[in-house]
Structure formats: structure tokens, C-alpha cells
Design goal:
Elements: E1 2-7, H1 11-17, H2 20-27, E2 32-37, E3 50-51, E4 61-62, H3 64-75, E5 82-92, H4 95-102, E6 106-111, E7 116-117, H5 119-124, E8 128-131, H6 141-152, E9 185-186, E10 189-190, H7 193-197, H8 200-218, H9 220-228
Parallel strand pairs: 1-2, 1-6, 4-7, 5-6, 5-8
Antiparallel strand pairs: 3-4, 9-10
Helix pairs in contact: 4-6, 8-9
Bound molecules: adenine (ADE).
Adenine binds near residues 112, 133 and 140.
Amino acid sequence: MRIDIVTAFPKMLESPLNESMLKKAQERKVVEIVVHDLRDYAHDKHRTVDDSPYGGGAGMVLKPEPVFEAVEALLAERTYSEVILLTADGETFNQSIANEISLKANLIFICGHYKGVDERIRERLVTREISIGDYVLTGGEIAALTVIDAVVRLLPGALGDSESALNDSFQTGLLDSPQYTRPAEFRGMKVPEVLLAGDHEEVRKWREAKSIERTTARRPDLIEKFLSEPDAAKAPAHKK
Ligand code: ADE
């Protein structure tokens, strides 16, 4: 997979893309991530990428020319499965969208900023609009990082063998069971006996029960969906 990110604030992406799983996935050649500075496609010496909205009003709008030119330069190089705009009024991101996107080949992410983007960018360039939740961020950069992290960790080889993403919360349709590590007793708090005893079937049953208990308490909406459609949460079927 290759991911190209078009942004007016490339520095916002630098360190998150170069730490932890995203760094390892790039080193392992599971994904190639390239950040493009929108200001490189500006037409004036001030490198302007935004302007005030026609009709008046507060805030600034991303201009069409730099975004079109940045994206068209990429489209001339290779084919892309999706051109994704991060915007508060897009479809709300979730695990099943992450699974779906993780099966695609090349992706372009456009980070909206300021008041929004010129509507012609959505009309002509964008194939999908994603929001990471019902709140307003200053721009799409943090949203793009969120989506990219959730997608890349699903790609075969991104995580070590022992860290498979398939058992994550949401991937099963339920929240995870509680987790413990050494020591077996800490400040008087003991790790449940079943986890220490080494009976794998008993551990599996305990985890399932705790997972249902936790989901029932915290996310009754998820438990209803799980009970009525047990196969609804489908992990992505990546080719080996
Ligand atoms: N830009 C501003 N708010 C956003 C959100 N909630 N999701 C994605 N992009 C955004």
C-alpha cells in the first residue's frame, strides 16, 4: 500500500508517522507513506493556500488550485483506489471502514483546514469523505493520522506475529477483556487465578465472559448488535 497525504501543515504529521507501529510498518515495507506540502503548489510568493469565503463569513477556505495540482500530480504517477478528504461532515469512521480501506491499494488523504475546502475539490477530486467523530478539529491532519494508524495496523506484517489485530476490541464486535502482566500481585491487587493456571480453554472462556460483561456495562449498543448479528464484525481477509 502507498499512502500520499496532502497537507498545509506537513510538520504536524512528521513525528507521529515516525514512531511506533507506523514507523516499523514503513521500515518493513508494508506501507510507503509520503507527505506533500500543499504550499509547494501555491501560485504566489506568500505560498497562499486559503482565501476568504465568497458571500462572506468567518474563517478561511482551502483554495482549489493547489489541491487540484497536488492531487493531479499524484494521479499522473499511479492509480489510486480512493481520494479521501478528512472533514467533520464526512461519514463517521469506525473499525469496519478501517477494515474496508485496509484492503485497497493506494490512497490519497487530503487534510481539510480552516473553515473548509472549496466545494469543487469535493465534487471533482474526492471519492470518499471521512470524519473521525462528531466534534470539530482545527484541521484534518490529526484525523488523517487516526485513520492511517487504524488502517496500517491491519496490513499483513505491520504488527509482529504475537500482536495480531484480529482480536482487537471492535474487531470481534465486543470490547476487549481486562489484561494483566507481571507481577502477579501488585499493592495487594491480585491477577485473576485463571490467568495464572495455564489452562488455555479456561482462559478463553474467562476472556469471553469478561468481554461480554464489559461491553454490556459500557456499550449496550454494541452488545445488542453482537447478539442480533454475531457475524457483523468481519475482520479483513488479506491475501497471504
Ligand atoms: N476536520 C475537522 N474536524 C474533523 C473531524 N471530526 N474529522 C475529520 N476531519 C475533521
